[in-house]
Amino acid sequence: MFTTLRRIGLAALLVGGMATTALAQDNKPVKLGWAAWSDAEFVTKLAAKLIEDKLGQKVELVQTDVAPLYQGVSRGDLDAMMMAWLPETHADYHKRVESKVDTLGTIYDGAKLGWVVPQYVPESEISSIEDLNKDNVKEKLGGTIQGIDPGAGLTRLSQQAIKDYGVDYKLQISSEAGMLTTVDRDMRSEKWFVATAWSPHWMFGKYKLRYIDDPKGALGKAEHVDILARKGFKQDNPKAAELLSRMKLPIPELEVAMFDAQETSYDKAVDKYIADHPDRVKEWLGE
What we know:
- The protein has helices at residues 10-14, 20-23, 38-55, 66-75, 91-97, 135-141, 153-165, 176-188, 203-206, 233-236, 238-246, 251-263, 266-276, 278-285, and strands at residues 4-7, 30-34, 59-63, 80-86, 101-118, 144-146, 170-172, 195-199, 209-211, 223-230.
- The protein is α/β, with parallel strands linked by helices.
- The protein has 2 domains: 30-110 and 223-285, D-Maltodextrin-Binding Protein, domain 2 (3-Layer(aba) Sandwich); 112-211, Glycine betaine-binding periplasmic protein, domain 2 (D-Maltodextrin-Binding Protein, domain 2), CATH 3.40.190.
- The strands form 2 sheets. Strands 1, 2, 3, 4, 5, 8, 9 and 10 form an 8-stranded mixed sheet that branches. The protein has a two-stranded parallel ribbon with strand order 6-7.
- Strand 2 (30-34), helix 3 and strand 3 (59-63) form a beta-alpha-beta unit.
- Helix 3 (38-55) crosses helix 12, helix 3 (38-55) packs across helix 13 (266-276) and helix 12 packs across helix 13.
- 42% of the residues are buried.
- Mean pLDDT is 91; it is low at 3-8 and 10-25.
């Protein structure tokens, strides 16, 4: 579907990057970066499909971690990223590059971070993070919170939440895939667990989960997810920049599409979304 899809590390991203003027040449692909989060994968591949099919431009997808993603856009090694969680989750990363990137728009509002438990866990036992301090609750949860990758903003906030609430738990650093494997296994056996989570995410369409309260606001409030571009991208490629700036998805629509991607594939889910929402796509294209 796309010109290139590759996994790169920090060194590969930051060393020997192309100059901005070279990126602007017609034969150069639009380089979209993304980290391995389900929502980011869907919206990035959706944008790539529209840029290729509707604008007739090549696209290169570059998967990396969150920190080098921000660095890549700020240095001009990437044209854009579609997963800037603000104002809290990616605050540290964004602050470092704010003057070196342009914000094209907000891809969706009302994004949320938090900790979830299965709905079969009684709210009388766990309704908030504070309840994790109960001896019987800690025993059933094994004193563990299922986490994701170490570079994620959610990981940083969860580590702070553990301190703020004084819960004697271990944050199990893993990955989104690792967290989901644990959730799936424990749901099948109706075992208790608590896991870091965020919305939008397809798992809310597959599993019956609920967020637990965070009365201290340690994990932040509702956020918006922005599209960032390298300086000069709007001038070098106005058509692609305008398309990205117009893209905005309601979270319920996005979660349905993400669940479709899990049931089929991201490419098929992207095709289905485009077919099911022709008016929205026309609006994005300025038609």
